[in-house]
């Protein structure tokens, strides 16, 4: 032991004499020996494989020992981080928004999906069951999985857009549980604007479908909004089929389908290609994870809800396009963290980006997808991005995280094509008309400055005569002005950032798309 100690002391002295620092390689000769042995084995293996007997290669070279170990460590680190990255690329990702009239069973269906896919354990369910029973609302317990705050649980109405994740064998899903009540339509708009797929929940119970479908019911408004906001695929789930007024009746199911089909068509959906109808019971979980039993419902031969979700084709997105991520929320956490869905391009740790419209240069410190830290993320992902270079109070909902080379346009005026849905009583749509504009995560007051031309709905060509005002159902090209700078794109370039709705006094009056922007609008 003494001899070893002396040798060690000598080595330390000589290392300090060399450059004033201790060389860790010299400080631990056992490690070097081990490395050398490993190296010798590796080298001899290589020599055997190659069939060469070059002696220079087989000699141990302790000088290279440390860099090699470092390389291995780096490789190991990369391997450790790689799964996150691979995980996000291995399974495709879809955002699903649950829409429909109040009390159709959206939160209950969402909660049941999470329970069936193993995201919620039995004990939690028992706790919610007891809580619901105490409030004399036994059938609400599944909804408590999605409706997390007390106000929502007491009233039984979703207010905020609930968010949760689940996976099937091929797909990672993000559930967005939108509120059905007409007072909370702006919240529903923010949820639907992030979604790729809509699940329209309809109650089959006698009287409930009719209430939701009639004029003023949320079933109609939600469908029109979903189409405008870019929800291209729709699953229409006829819920509460187990209710005693329905009892899995084929007549009731067919009646609902026959009434909904023409309406979905008039809202712009291709019913054959983009819409799937299926019966379920959200409370009991029938026809959700596994197909319907013939003893329950002999006439249904179609897929269950999970199969239908799995078979939806993911919309094409461009991972190499200019980066665009509308900001839906922000908070402070070791820097400024912004949340949103990537509409175009990809983001990596270390990227330099712009926060528009205030043109603040920021650096990406970290990227989180679902709850996991990832090194890069592509379009369609819901992210939390930690930034440096901007304070949390300088970021607003509706701002857009954008690439530096091709920043998003920031404007106060734009040209748009509008379809008037239903104006308030006695209102006419003319220059000077004021409304609230909803475009991606922007909510801003706007004014129609000028009507440019009316479009003939049959020929889809502009009419000759000058237009001063239009009524319900008209399609018109107009100039729209907003009070503050907003970030938008032409619909032809970025559909998600160029489609919008106009609402006034709690009612959706028009839907539209941005057709042109002022020339000097880019940063």
TrEMBL record:
Mind listing the UniProt keywords for this protein, alphabetically?
GTP-binding, Methylation, Nucleotide-binding
Instruction: Show the ranges annotated as biased composition (Basic and acidic residues).
Output: 25-58
Domain (Tr-type G) ranges: 91-320
Task: Please name the GO terms that the record assigns under molecular function.
Answer: GTP binding; GTPase activity
> InterPro entries under this entry?
EFTu-like_2, G_TR_CS, GTP-eEF1A_C, P-loop_NTPase, T_Tr_GTP-bd_dom, TRAFAC_GTPase_members, Transl_B-barrel_sf, Transl_elong_EF1A/Init_IF2_C
Highest rank taxon of the organism: Eukaryota
- Which Pfam families does this UniProt record tie to the protein? GTP-eEF1A_C, GTP_EFTU, GTP_EFTU_D2
| Sequence segments annotated as region (Disordered) | 1-71
**CDD domains given in the database record:** EF1_alpha, eRF3_C_III, eRF3_II
Keyword DNA-binding in the entry? The reply is no
Q: What does this protein do?
A: This protein promotes the GTP-dependent binding of aminoacyl-tRNA to the A-site of ribosomes during protein biosynthesis.
Query: Which protein family is it in?
Result: Belongs to the TRAFAC class translation factor GTPase superfamily. Classic translation factor GTPase family. EF-Tu/EF-1A subfamily.
What this protein is called in its record is: Tr-type G domain-containing protein
Q: In which organism is this protein found? A: Hibiscus trionum
Taxonomy, top ranks, is: Eukaryota, Viridiplantae, Streptophyta, Embryophyta, Tracheophyta
């Amino acid at each position: 032991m003494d001899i070893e100690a002396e040798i060690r002391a000598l080595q330390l002295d000589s290392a300090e004499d060399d450059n004033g620092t201790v060389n860790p390689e010299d400080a631990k000769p056992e490690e070097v020996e081990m490395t050398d042995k490993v190296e010798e084995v590796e080298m001899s293996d290589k020599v055997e494989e190659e069939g060469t007997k070059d002696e220079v290669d087989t000699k141990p070279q302790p000088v290279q020992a440390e860099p090699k170990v470092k390389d291995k460590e780096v490789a190991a680190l990369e391997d450790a981080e790689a799964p996150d990255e691979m995980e996000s690329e291995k399974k495709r990702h879809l955002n699903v928004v649950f829409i429909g009239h109040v009390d159709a069973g959206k939160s209950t269906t969402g909660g049941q999906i999470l329970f069936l896919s193993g995201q919620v354990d039995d004990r939690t369910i028992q706790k919610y069951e007891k809580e619901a029973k105490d409030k004399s609302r036994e059938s609400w317990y599944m909804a408590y999985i999605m409706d997390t705050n007390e106000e929502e649980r007491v009233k039984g109405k979703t207010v905020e857009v609930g968010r949760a994740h689940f996976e099937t064998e091929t797909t990672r899903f993000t559930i967005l549980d939108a509120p059905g009540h007409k007072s909370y339509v702006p919240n529903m708009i923010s949820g639907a604007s992030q979604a790729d797929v809509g699940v329209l929940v309809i109650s089959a119970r006698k009287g409930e479908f009719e209430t939701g479908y009639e004029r003023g019911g949320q079933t109609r408004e939600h469908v029109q909004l979903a189409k405008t906001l870019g929800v291209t695929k729709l699953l229409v789930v006829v819920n509460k089929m187990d209710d005693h007024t329905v009892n899995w009746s084929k007549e009731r199911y067919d009646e609902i389908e026959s009434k909904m089909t023409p309406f979905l068509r008039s809202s712009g959906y291709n019913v054959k290609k983009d819409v799937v109808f299926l019966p379920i019971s959200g409370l009991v979980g029938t026809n959700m994870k596994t197909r319907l039993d013939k003893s329950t419902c002999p006439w249904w031969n179609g897929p269950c809800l999970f199969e239908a979700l799995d078979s939806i084709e993911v919309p094409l997105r461009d991972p190499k396009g200019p980066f665009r991520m509308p900001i839906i929320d922000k908070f402070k956490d070791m820097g400024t963290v912004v949340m949103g869905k990537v509409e175009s391009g990809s983001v990596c740790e270390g990227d330099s980006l712009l926060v528009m419209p205030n043109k603040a240069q920021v650096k990406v410190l970290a990227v989180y997808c679902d709850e996991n830290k990832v090194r890069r993320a592509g379009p369609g992902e819901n992210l939390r991005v930690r930034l440096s270079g901007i304070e949390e109070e300088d970021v607003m909902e509706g701002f857009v995280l954008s690439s530096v080379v091709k920043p998003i346009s920031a404007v106060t005026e734009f040209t748009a094509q509008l379809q008037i849905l239903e104006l308030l009583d006695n209102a006419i749509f003319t220059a000077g008309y004021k409304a609230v504009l909803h475009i991606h995560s922007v909510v801003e007051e706007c004014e129609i400055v000028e009507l440019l031309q009316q479009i003939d709905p049959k020929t889809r060509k502009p009419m000759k005569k000058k237009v001063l005002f239009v009524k319900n159902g008209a399609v018109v090209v107009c100039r729209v002005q907003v009070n503050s700078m907003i970030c938008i794109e032409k619909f032809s370039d970025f559909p998600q950032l160029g489609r919008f709705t106009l609402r006034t006094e709690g009612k959706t009056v028009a839907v539209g798309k941005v057709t042109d922007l002022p020339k000097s609008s880019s940063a």
